[in-house]
Amino acid sequence: MNQFQTEGSRLYYLTISRGELFRIQATNEAGNRIPPEIWKPYLYFLDKDSFFGLTAQTDGLDLIVTPADFVRLFQREPHHYVTFAGQRAEDEAWLKLAGKVADSLNDPLLWDHVSVDGGEISINDTYGDEEIRTFLADTIHHQLRQKGLSVGQLPYIQGFVQEAGWEGLADADDYVVAVQLSEPDADEFWSFKVVMRSKRGSVYWSPSKRRADEPIDKALPEKWRPFAEDIKKRQSLFLSLCPSVDRFDEDRFYHAEWTDAEILEFLRNDAEILQAFGVEVSIPSWLKAVQESKIRVKANVNSPIKKASVVGLDQIINFDWQFSLNGHELSMQDFQRLVSENKEFIRIGNEWVRVDSNLLMQLRKMIEEAEDADWTIKDMLFQNVPEIMLDETADEEDPLVEFHLNRSLKTLLDKLLDKRDLPETPLPNNLLTELRPYQKIGFDYLVFMREEGFGLCLADDMGLGKTVQLITYLLHVHGKNPDQPSLIVCPTSVLGNWQKELERFAPDLKVVTHYGSIRPKGEEFNAFLAAEKPDVVLSTYGIASSDDEEMQSLHWSSITLDEAQNIKNMYTKQSRTIRKFKGDHHIALTGTPIENRLSELWSIFDFINKGYLYRIKQFQENFMIPIERDNSEETKEKLRQRIQPFLLRRTKKDPDLQLNLPEKQEQLEYCPLTPEQAALYEGLVQDTVQKMETLTGFEKKGLVLKMLSKLKQLCNHPSLYLKEPYTNAAEILPRSQKLERIVTLAGEIAERGEQCLIFTQYIGMGHLLQQAINELYGHEVPFLTGSMPKQQRDSLVASFQAGKFPIFILSLKAGGTGLNLTAATHVLHADRWWNPAVENQATDRAYRIGQTQFVHVHKFVTIGTIEEKIDSLLVQKQSMSEEFIQSSQWMTDLSDNDLKELFTYSL
């Protein structure tokens, strides 16, 4: 037992596993696994760096920590009330090693043995044993990452860390030592110097020219002279962090004159290191504002042939080039002069701007190529145009080069992509389903657009099979063995659905998910893909946005955004990041009618065909304002014609499609458990299985039925199982992807002007849905339960049929029979009943005589739980008599082993 344990204290045994990160589990003295939420506060009770555990990462019953965090947390004595000890000898060894590594990190002599070799941190063999050296290297690596620095920057910070530690120097009492960068005045050179200010003031002081060469103790004002040695030390340590500073006189204030190139080097490297260690860096405010300024190029594109009927894809086009820099118009002569001068910072009028001289050279080269190479229409329309033409700034969502097509080219584009004349593409032999005629058209369209080099938006109505069309396309593409995988980005709530649908229709495609806390990152991501060689990588919007470096490091075979309205807000980091991903083919899937959401439309087109809908400001002026403010029919038609070639949208109301659709379509909506749900699920199963071993047959049946109800509530939302009150949607929805998906789907259905029924067995689930939908979408949603009087019940049914409210929640028992609700075109089953006949009776409230519309049935299933296993079992045993599956009673007759397999959570 750990020597620090005291009488009355609590003891937790830790099981520690090590990959790139540490995974830690805890058990109590009784041998029961304990969720991190219970014991984590005791571990972090003094840890300010993580805000006392607020930012700590968990995954189910595991606490995830970096090597640096592991050392920091376990180097001190335990909490006075709680003791942590290793479960096994190797776990105890890890805890002891944390203390040893902490001692080494505080050892100034360590840094005499540290070096960087081939991008890796190396510690000399003479320092400690190999285990400590390896752990130290990993810890230093994570310390760098936490400060936003790379391994390559380690040599520049070693001296500083050796002297001041990772947290840097403590603040002085009355003054601040800083570095200042000043713009050129009369000459061409910038000024870089060490300056000071009073802690209570904002004005910087530096020696006058007359006293610039005097020693620091003499150059200082009288009030600071007693601190001359500390100021010297701070200057020396700060300048040691600057790769741009080769050598300097430690006894004098540093002052140097730098060129544009030296300034850029400082901004790219030195400033980042200085700020990582809390050093104050002063640069001109205008320089901060224009660091990413770029020149803009507008190309008016014309065809020498005036009649569109004779213009073809290979028709040579002419360009009329126009330039501007920060809104200032430039002539071709001005542009050529900028390129020739090769300067980074120039003054236009009274304004300083920065231009990328390398970018100017590339632009000039691109323009010369365009003039000399006889570009065709096909070259210009995003297929073979140099990447520089599609670049964008960090602050604006504007293309670097903007094209304006004349009328004949626009007309050609419309004719070229007329979807009624698409070439036929044979269906892949390994597709395990049949496509309906309109789905085959969608597949042909996807393939044709890929071959022609155009992105597209497949905007079929919900339930028409966008997923199967995309899967067929992927089978076709990867049947030709491209060098890179395809990427699908989707909301977290439908990630499981994509996994199941790909497995169902295209088992020959190798699919991997990039999701979860232990997903490969950095170089490991590329190594993982190289080893696995997947055809398809599935990820979510949140992960794709946070792992932007990994995603942007690849040029994907295709990139598909499912529920593409997730990037509709062009200004969010998620939208900006994902729109920068690069692939051979960009595809957007959405069932939302985007024609009436113009900002969303622009954002989606910026992803599929960057620059085609102009810069956002011009799009607002030319389309958004005339349509949204003035309701201009002429402008609507103009926009409709422009987007039509790249947008395929079919709706359920299309008579051509109705002939080929079933009257009712049933679809499983797969949702994973959250880590919180998974931990509670496993704990409940383990506890119940142990109890079953001691019970009689009758007692066991009662326990199984009780557990079944608890598991079903837990699959819906942990607050139902824990009997917690509703707080707000922001807190409730992230705890259950099933609840989040149902609320989102119901909201989307209502926004499209359709109506839906939501069936649930649990009053608590109905209230959660009511409150969340009302809070997020503003709909007052009635909830029909068994306690509702008949008069009120009849009134609600009549109001729903009259279209007075779009969403109706019903208790499965109270609303599953005897009602006529044919106004609904969607039926959502929030939780599964083990008798299919009961679900079908509920569905038939909408799908019955008098229903003239297509009915889409959504059955929500949590992956890896009893819901999925029962659904699979019912499919396998369709020959069972209805009496056998009339209720959940048949499950109570299963053997203990069968019950354990049925209830166990598995992925």
UniProtKB/TrEMBL annotation:
<dbReference type="InterPro" id="IPR027417">
    <property type="entry name" value="P-loop_NTPase"/>
</dbReference>
<dbReference type="InterPro" id="IPR022138">
    <property type="entry name" value="DUF3670"/>
</dbReference>
<feature type="domain" description="Helicase ATP-binding">
    <location>
        <begin position="447"/>
        <end position="611"/>
    </location>
</feature>
<dbReference type="InterPro" id="IPR001650">
    <property type="entry name" value="Helicase_C-like"/>
</dbReference>
<dbReference type="Pfam" id="PF00271">
    <property type="entry name" value="Helicase_C"/>
</dbReference>
<dbReference type="InterPro" id="IPR038718">
    <property type="entry name" value="SNF2-like_sf"/>
</dbReference>
<dbReference type="Pfam" id="PF00176">
    <property type="entry name" value="SNF2-rel_dom"/>
</dbReference>
<dbReference type="GO" id="GO:0004386">
    <property type="term" value="F:helicase activity"/>
</dbReference>
<keyword id="KW-0378">Hydrolase</keyword>
<dbReference type="GO" id="GO:0016787">
    <property type="term" value="F:hydrolase activity"/>
</dbReference>
<dbReference type="InterPro" id="IPR049730">
    <property type="entry name" value="SNF2/RAD54-like_C"/>
</dbReference>
<dbReference type="Pfam" id="PF12419">
    <property type="entry name" value="DUF3670"/>
</dbReference>
<keyword id="KW-0067">ATP-binding</keyword>
<keyword id="KW-0347">Helicase</keyword>
<dbReference type="InterPro" id="IPR014001">
    <property type="entry name" value="Helicase_ATP-bd"/>
</dbReference>
<dbReference type="InterPro" id="IPR000330">
    <property type="entry name" value="SNF2_N"/>
</dbReference>
<feature type="domain" description="Helicase C-terminal">
    <location>
        <begin position="738"/>
        <end position="900"/>
    </location>
</feature>
<protein>
    <submittedName>
        <fullName>DEAD/DEAH box helicase</fullName>
        <ecNumber>3.6.4.-</ecNumber>
    </submittedName>
</protein>
<keyword id="KW-0547">Nucleotide-binding</keyword>
